[in-house]
Amino acid sequence: MSDRPILEVVGLTKSFGGLTAVSDVSLTVDRGEILGVIGPNGAGKTTFFNVIAGSMPPTSGTVHFEGTDCTGMRADHMARLGMTRTFQITSLFPALSAFDNVRAATYRTKSTGWIGSIMRSAAYRSEEAAVSDSAMEALRFVELDKRAHVMADALSYGEQRRLEIAIALAAEPRLLLLDEPAAGMNPEEGQRLVGMIKKIRDRGVSILLVEHHMRVVMGVCDRVVVIDHGIKIAEGAPSEVVNNPDVIRVYLGREAVSA
Ligand SMILES: Nc1ncnc2c1ncn2[C@@H]1O[C@H](COP(=O)(O)OP(=O)(O)OP(=O)(O)O)[C@@H](O)[C@H]1O
């Protein structure tokens, strides 16, 4: 297997009219690594994440996944390549069960297409069985298998967030992009999430995590990139980053004060 980073972002810039939300940010995610991107409110984390994940095109810069240029590529195409994302705000179908939510999302990435589904061909039937298997496996992984047939809107908030991760995992990615997975979680749910993220990595999935919660980032990441006003101001191991004076000034100082 190649030593090349699984994700290479070079000189990423995103402007909205006169406002540059992300300015010339470069980073890499190594295979098997959990990389965190942090920054204070309005730093540009969500914009950075959305550009990488294919939700909006960059103004300039490139994104390569396993050496393939996927700059500006649609999220469903990226999923087929092996990179999937979660959403900060829930994107679930409320009136479908947890199981059907995972299945519905998986069809978008593993599909023989509409002709196969209309003809109910052998390929379609075996694909259906494979989709159901990977959906249940993903639910088991996030400890929701016993809640598989509960409607999404009847799940607790923490369970819904875990279901989002199951949806991304069911596509069997090699790189998982997590958008503020701990948002709105209580400390106990946050701890459970940390364990789950480590388990995902132990299965061989590399992870890019954009997160506001310092405890989650410090507890789970191998390396951290700090963004402020759209600019990368620091990068290193969590223990280095927490002692970086620029980081303390723009981010940790506020967190420490409010902790
Ligand atoms: N679609 C948009 N149009 C115009 N400005 C935008 C748009 N999206 C984001 N911005 C601006 O870009 C800057 C960065 O916003 P972004 O949401 O990426 O930051 P963030 O670090 O994710 O913040 P938070 O932690 O509060 O979610 C902000 O000034 C924001 O107002």
How would you sum up this structure, described in words?
The chain has 10 helices and 10 strands. A 6-stranded mixed beta sheet has the order 6-7-8-3-9-10, sandwiched between helices. The protein has a 4-stranded antiparallel beta sheet with strand order 2-1-4-5, with helices on one face. It has helices at 45-52, 75-81, 98-109, 114-119, 122-141, 157-170, 187-202, 214-220, 238-241, 245-258; strands at residues 7-16, 19-29, 34-38, 60-65, 68-69, 83-85, 175-179, 206-210, 223-228, 231-236. The chain has 259 residues and is of the alpha/beta class. Helix 3 (98-109) crosses helix 5 (122-141), helix 3 runs parallel beside helix 6 and helix 5 (122-141) packs across helix 6. The protein is globular, with a radius of gyration of 19 Å. Strand 4 and strand 5 (68-69) form a beta hairpin. The chain has 2 domains: 1-82 and 173-259, P-loop containing nucleotide triphosphate hydrolases (Rossmann fold), CATH 3.40.50.300; 98-172, no CATH class. Bound molecules: adenosine-5'-triphosphate. Adenosine-5'-triphosphate binds at residues 16, 19, 21, 39, 41-47, 212. GO terms for molecular function: ATP binding; ATP hydrolysis activity. Pfam families: ABC_tran (PF00005), BCA_ABC_TP_C (PF12399). It comes from Microbaculum marinisediminis. One of its GO terms (cellular component) is plasma membrane. This is ABC transporter ATP-binding protein.
